[in-house]
Amino acid sequence: MKKLFTLTLLFLSLLGQWAMAQDISVNPNEGRLGEFLPVTVVGENTNFTQFSQGSQAIWVYLQQGSSTLITSYNTVVESNTEATGSFYIPANAEGGYYDLVFGDAQGFPIYASEDAFEVLLPSLVTVDPEGASRGQTLDVSLIGNNTVFTQGSITTAWFMQGSNTIYSNSVEATTDEMAIANFQIPIDAECGIYDTYVNYGANSDVTISKTGSFSVACMSQINGSVYFDENTNNEYNFGEGGVPQAKIHVMPGDFLITTDANGYYYLDVEPGDYTLTVIPPDYYTAQYPSIDITIDEMGQIESQVDFGLMAQANIHDLRVQIASDQSISEASKNYWITLKNVGTTPLNATLKVSVDPLVNIETTSISPDQFDAPTTGQELTWELEDFVGTTDIFLQAFLLEAELGTPIISKVEVLTTEEDMTPENNEEILVEEVTEVSESNEKMATSSGDILEDMVLLEDELIYTIHFQNTSDEEVSNLIIEDPIDANLDLATFEVIGASHAYIYSFKDDYSVVFEFNDINLAPSNITEHLSKGFVKYSIAPKENTPENTIVQNTGYLRFDDNEPISTNTTENTLVEMFFTSLSSLPKVDGKVRAVPNPVTDKTELILDEYDSALSQLNIYSLDGRLVRSQDLTNVQRIFIQREDLKSGAYLYEVIGSKIYTGKLVVN
Fold it and tell me: What is the residue-averaged pLDDT of the chain?
């Protein structure tokens, strides 16, 4: 029996309070360093109110040995057998068991209970990942035991090696025993083993650590940036912006790396000779596209290996795309529109979006300048002045009752008074069908040109769309999509067309693309169907000299937070030189004929961009390659297509003359 507890019992006996057995306890009966803990003291055969002399004039405290270490705040006597208050467990408290004491207004002990409360000491159990490279930005999971990360605030986390310290950019507590710290490892950080420290608590006064828990790789490094060289002096000057997601080819190894959101890159290497070559985006050139670097020894850092990009003057090029989730009768439906100015000068533009009459638009992320509801569907218009960069617009909608297989046709187009370099991507028609509920995380493959069943022309790009949805019961904070690319496709031609949320991407040395959606905060589908979904869409071309009839396959893998990866379906496409038609020996051109109007309700006119005196025939095909109509064009001055027996849906057509002019037609 501890001395103080013995004295307390002797004092109680002298007062004559022990005539009847009394017992007190506290709930909860354990606490952790740095915790502010509401407690309830419960008595048996006690008379708390006799000693209160007012509602708060009592003392409840914990003591260990001869010291009173923890005193209750704002203690209130509720009845003869119950009092409430709160303990703050200070950072310097010893671990182990404490005696509980109930005292009067002067603090003299009235009731006491031995070993009634335990203080649990915290520890840092896991640091994951356990290492990084210099220059790397990463999130580190910090898992503790008997910690209270969520109470109060975590001031910081840091790695320490002797006098060398690497502080975190931010720390976010996810549970009492887990926090996520974001670190930027300096490019000149000392290599080797570091201890990890975390500071937390209601008063930020508790510090825990784990020895030898993190390492900074001692590899050599090449780092630098890709920037817009606006004054063409081949120097990265103040005010010149970095180029995000720029691609750099590395030899030896024959692989690609990308810059971060600010245009910087970091490459860990072994000693040896390297050649880095920047791959400029369209309409940009590099004065010195390749740089040779020699790494002589481990730990060597070659910094400011920069690539300056110069813009071609007065390039006008707008691109627009539309994506959507599943079309399910009497269910929510999302549309995502992405407009990009990929040229080199600001442009005034008009963006128009037309949706199917069966679709009701409920909200838009950016209010349109005009919102009409013609008989053919709803039309929204945005007027953009001096437009540069990218604009993303989200449409929240609802699909009315419709039979399975009903076509849902939407269109997006951008208009400008300037001559566009690539007018063929200034509009896109989205043709869908009403379906039953399918997989939430799926992959779709189309083409930048025509597609016949699963066949894609070798001259065209493959376009992949990965749809994702949070079907769990909790919000998803982060999403990572890893997408292994078929070896027959050229990563140097990879380009993201659009995405529903902010992202960054990078290439892995196993020929994969990794998309990171950090802080995506994807809602559970059972809470809000609209905000549980998203997508990413990209294009990529076959490698040169790829043999005809090559089959390319693709499967994506999605990781929601720390859950196991989910695989999508596998797409499969066959690459061919041309589709087999009766007149396939003629040269084939796309984009030289337009259908006005398109989509078609009653009739449309086909207009050629160039005069052709040899016009002879018009053929219309279904998407599976079946010829559904043929018209003689001999001595015809204007080409009209009457709807007549054409069912609603999408078709391919060819106008045969000295060439074969191809296009796509949509019938409402």
Answer: 88
**Residue 227: count of CB within 10 angstroms of its CB:** 22
- Tell me the pTM: 0.65
DSSP category for residue 502: -
The least confident of 471-480, 567-576, 577-586, 636-645 is 577-586
Query: Where are any strands of DSSP class E within 52-155?
Result: 59-64, 67-71, 73-79, 82-88, 96-103, 109-120, 123-128, 131-132, 137-145
pLDDT of residue 625: 67
Fold adopted by 223-311: Immunoglobulin-like (2.60.40)
Judged against a pLDDT cut of 80, whether residue 2 lies above it is answered with no
pLDDT in tens, 281-313: 999 999 999 999 999 988 888 999 999 999 999
Say if residue 129 is preceded by a cis peptide, omega within 30 of 0: yes
CATH superfamily of 123-216: Immunoglobulins (2.60.40.10)
Report the chain's terminal Cα–Cα distance, integer Å.
90
The superfamily CATH assigns to domain 3-120 is Macroglobulin (MG2) domain (2.60.40.1930)
Q: How many CA atoms lie within 13 A of 172 on its CB side?
A: 7
| Residue 316 binned pLDDT confidence (cut-offs 50, 70, 90) | very high
Distance between CA atoms of residues 269 and 30, nearest Å: 51
Give dist(CA 302, CA 290) in Å, integer: 15
Q: Are 371 and 378 in contact (CB under 8 A)?
A: yes
Average pLDDT on 594-615 reads 88
Measured distance CA(288)–CA(311) in Å, rounded: 14
**What CA–CA distance (Å, rounded) separates 116 from 27?**
9
Domain residue ranges of the chain, discontinuous segments joined by + = 3-120, 123-216, 223-311, 330-576, 588-667
Task: Tally the residues of the chain.
Answer: 668
- Residues 420-448 have pLDDT tens digits of 999 989 998 888 888 887 678 999 998 88
CB 195 within 8 A of CB 188: no
Phi/psi region, residue 130 (left: phi>0; alpha: psi -120 to 50; beta: rest), is alpha
C-alpha 142/C-alpha 152 separation (Å) is: 17
Query: For the residues of 241-295, what is the DSSP string, one character each?
Result: PB-TT-EEEEETTTEEEE--TTSEEEEEE-SEEEEEEEEPPTTEEESS-EEEEEE
**Residue in this structure with the two tokens 């009966």, named with its chain if needed:** 29
What's the CA gap between 482 and 206, in Å, rounded? 39
